Amino acid sequence: MLEGERKQGQFPQLEMSHLLYGGKDQFDKFLERQHFFDTNPMFKVNHDFYNKSRQDQILLNAERTVEAMKKLSLGDPNYYTPNVLCPQGIFISTVHFAMVIPAFQVLASDDQITKWMTSLKNFSAIGCYAQTELGHGSDVQNLQTIAVFDKQTSEFVIHTPNIEATKFWPGELGLYCEFALVFAQLQVDGKGYGVHPFWIRIRDKETHKPLSGIEIGDIGPKMGYAVKDNGFMSFDHYRAPLDSLLNRYIKVSRDGKVERQGNPKVGYGSMMYMRNILCDQYTKFGGRALTIAVRYSLYRKQFKDDNKQEIRILDYQCQQQKLFPLLAEFYACVFGSIKIKELVNENFNRISQSNDFSLLGLTHAVLSGAKANYTYFVSNCAEWCRLSCGGHGFAHYSGLPIIFFEMSPNITLEGENTILNLQLARYLLKQLQHIVSKPNAVPEFFKFLSLETAKVDDVTTIDNLITLLGLNCAILTKYAAQKLMSHTDMKESWDTKSGIALAKAASTFIPYFNMLCFLDTINNKAKETKEILTVLARIYGITMLLNNMQGLLLKNQLNSQQIKTLQDTRESLYPIIRSNALCLVEAQGLSDNSLQSLIAPKEGDVYMNMYNFASQENSLNKQQVHDGINYIKKMREVNAKL
Ligand SMILES: Cc1cc2nc3c(=O)[nH]c(=O)nc-3n(C[C@H](O)[C@H](O)[C@H](O)COP(=O)(O)OP(=O)(O)OC[C@H]3O[C@@H](n4cnc5c(N)ncnc54)[C@H](O)[C@@H]3O)c2cc1C
User: For the Acyl-CoA oxidase C-terminal domain, which residue ranges apply (predicted)?
Assistant: First the structure.
């Protein structure tokens, strides 16, 4: 049924696949991993999974993690790790590999790395990242768990002074990990030295029970994330040895002398690692949702045309309006994320090879904005894809609810998005000052802040869209700066008077950045690839402007005629995407098993799929007469007495 659609594609699909994965090598590696999942019976997607209890889902996921480990190095960040391929839940090792090990690499001394890294990597020491507490998450400096140094024994006494200080949320803490990287306020001789990480054994090696003085458990069911054992933990004067403090940047001697060393800014490194993964890998979940929605919209027909032929829902302009801007945004975020990965690597190389911190501020700012922008995109994309599939989108067998559930926490974790946008805003304000005082110090990506006005004839070309998006962000940044400065108390102004303007200004930077990356990707490509990417880039740029043009309106840089032109042009580009839509989503190379959807197979009868599942696999139907019927009888009895 879809072959005809595939033939309509007007670009070389393999070249597009390589672009989406950042190269042939990466795409081949992805296919190799996908093949492993597709051919191993344990990873065959079973939609009855969602009928299982949380207990059973957790156990099945554990079994699958073991199987995956036999073949794949789950912690290898160089390749597209199997998260997007994970069958119905995320493997046990994610936090350990993506948060604990990177933090260890950055914060532990060479001796500590030598002592622990092998057992961390081969999983004989599995740990969680225990930072957040019941009372404080974003505000790390005000965590309340304390680590008091005891000079008599040269140990740290880790203690939870009140309920609020209970560690809450760390993944893999509730059931699995034996160790925890516990973030606590260091106190030596009554003096506070701020929050530092302590690597602590929390469960017994043999029995796996919590060690004496530590209470641990799972926090309970959440919105999705059923297989993840997010946990709680409190300490009652628990004694940890001297070298539990990760001491690359701060050392406490046996007799209690505290010494700081090196540049603690490197600590940002571990945060960057996870945020980079969120941008690089988790953005791909948006593409998975789009593949399902586009395919289903080709299978699904509603109402007839004048020739009495039923119409595919993808042919409706309103359906295109739901999906095509998201498809364009997916491409934009993927190209942006590839650039960000290069930036993060370059920053790490400079720091580790020559102690050069010159790229740190820029990388941290761009990554903060991108993490916020991309994670909002993925969860919004999953939700709109679900809505675009009508009733079937609501069922787990569509494969869409799980994407929304698993992706929406990313808005909150690893830096809550509003707070990240405010961090980018701080950087924008700094560059705005530099535009006047030290223009040469302003990185290329932020030179747009000098824009005051733009005279563009055609508002819909890529170059002009980039100019307008930059100008919009520049105007909003200046507006936010004025708002901030109009009050004498800067801190109060930031928190209570200018936050909206600052966060808004920052949120308009990434669309500009993504467009630059899009343009960069388009250049030097074969004609057909260039043509279709140009259409996507224009749709993306126009959509971003239409959604966020307040800056341009504020300074009369866009008039109603131009807004109409933007809308009309976007609509006029939809037919080109319509012909290429299937090939554009299929360039991701996702197999049916990876899609985990009954409504969007490569080939086949979606209605038969759904019927077969409901009638044969849905375990609720296994009992011909369900036990619940007893209650219907009781209801009748109650009613009879009325
Ligand atoms: C699925 C999941 C997994 C997690 N895994 C881990 C883990 O492994 N380890 C771990 O330590 N933690 C983990 N967490 C916790 C997570 O890191 C925190 O929830 C996150 O950092 C947000 O902090 P918070 O909950 O304190 O939110 P808050 O900071 O309380 O945010 C609540 C609201 O207040 C607003 N707000 C707060 N401060 C400001 C400000 N200064 N300006 C403007 N607005 C503000 C926010 O924008 C938000 O709207 C996890 C959380 C989830 C949901």
Answer: 463-635
- Count the helix, strand and coil residues of the chain and give each as a percent rounded to the nearest 5: 60, 10, 30
Among 544, 540, 549, residue whose Cα is nearest residue 521: 540
**Mutate which of 169, 424, 490, 495 to test ligand 1's pocket (most atoms within 8 Å of Cβ)?**
169
Protein residues whose CB sits closer than 6 Å to any atom of ligand 1: 95, 129-132, 137-138, 169-171, 225, 230, 409, 412-413, 416, 418-419, 422, 499
Which residues have a Cβ under 8 Å from the Cβ of 23 and sit 6 or more positions away?
none
Report which residue type is found at 9: G
Distance 440 CA to ligand 1 centre (A): 37
Query: In whole angstroms, what is the distance from residue 128 CA to residue 96 CA?
Result: 6
Q: Which of 232, 413, 420 should be mutated for ligand 1, with most atoms under 8 A from CB? A: 413
**Cβ 312 vs Cβ 297: under 8 Å:** yes
Index of the ligand 1 atom closest to the CA of residue 137 = 26
Which residues in 318-344 are b (16+ Cβ under 10 Å) and which e?
Answer: ebbebbbbbbbbbbbbbbbbbbbbebb
**How far is the centre of ligand 1, averaged over its atoms, from the C-alpha of 294 (Å)?**
34
Confidence (pLDDT) at 94: 85
Torsion of CA 265, 270, 271, 275, to 10 degrees: 130
Residue 168, CA distances (Å) to 99, 139, 197 in order: 16, 14, 16
Q: How far apart are CA 37 and CA 44, in angstroms?
A: 7
The secondary structure of residue 416, as a DSSP letter, is -
Q: Pick from 85, 89, 34, 23: which is nearest to 62 by CA?
A: 89
Q: What is the pLDDT of residue 81?
A: 56
**Sequence-ordered strand ranges (E) for 327-420:** none
* Strand partners of residue 129: 181
Catalytic positions, written as ranges:
414
Token duo for residue 366: 């761009």
Mutate to test the pocket of ligand 1, among 410, 412, 498 (most ligand atoms within 8 A of CB): 412
Query: 376 - beta bridge partners?
Result: none
**Residue 139 CA, ligand 1 centroid: distance in Å:** 8
Q: What are the mean pLDDT values of the chain's consecutive 10-residue runs (642 residues total)?
A: 93 97 92 92 92 95 90 69 71 87 91 95 93 96 97 98 98 97 98 96 97 98 93 98 95 96 75 88 95 98 97 98 98 97 92 87 96 98 98 97 94 96 98 95 97 95 98 98 96 97 98 98 93 98 97 97 98 98 98 96 95 95 90 90 81
Ligand 1 centre and the CA of 416: distance in Å?
A: 5
Nearest to 428 by CA among 515, 505, 376: 505
